[in-house]
Amino acid sequence: MKIIYLGTPDFAVAPLKSIVENGFNVVAVVSQTDKRTGRKRELKPTPLKEYAISQNIPVYQF
Hints:
It contains two helices and five strands. It is of the alpha/beta class.
């Protein structure tokens, strides 16, 4: 079964982590676009995007 996971905030990472650790085939993650934060207004990726990238899962943002 192929899974496309949708989420953005911190609490969306734990379920995705569990899905990946249990051997399911996550083919993509969909998350909100990166937000500008801080005084320098630097782009900061969502927590879900950071985890997906660390697991080599493609991330799509709309």
